[in-house]
Amino acid sequence: ATVQDWRGRGIKTGDSAGEQVVGRDVAPEEGMRVVIREAALQQFPELLEDSQGGPGTITWVDPEDLDGDGVTGDICEVRWDKTKATADYRTGYEGEFRLALFR
pLDDT truncated to tens, each residue of the chain (103 aa)? Predict the structure, then answer.
């Protein structure tokens, strides 16, 4: 399926039901509570190492337009609650979205 993102672009989805994808459905913001998307974990199971399946907080949103699509916030840094690890995740860079809002 294809949906419109918050920027008005068409994006293909592989979503879990009701998932709000950071960078696609909602703009990334510092302080936002997130988890790693199911689709991202299926494609990159190693992403589970830092989060241990729990939530984290966005601590930084890249102010640059890294992929040249005219939109900033392509990469975000997250600090995970369970492990205290900090890592960067794609939130629109080259059409990849690896975070979802925590509920």
Answer: 445 554 555 544 455 668 999 999 999 999 999 999 999 999 999 999 999 999 999 999 999 999 998 889 999 999 999 999 999 999 999 999 999 999 8
Q: Is 62 exposed, middle or buried (0-12, 13-18, 19+ CB in 10 A)?
A: middle
Alpha carbons 13 and 85: distance in angstroms, whole number: 28
pTM of structure: 0.83
**Beta strand segments in 1-103, E:** 2-4, 10-12, 33-36, 56-61, 75-80, 86-90, 99-101
In angstroms, rounded to a whole number, what is the distance separating the alpha carbons of residues 19 and 92? 16
Pairing of strands 56-61, 33-36: antiparallel
Burial of 87 (0-12, 13-18, 19+ CB in 10 A): middle
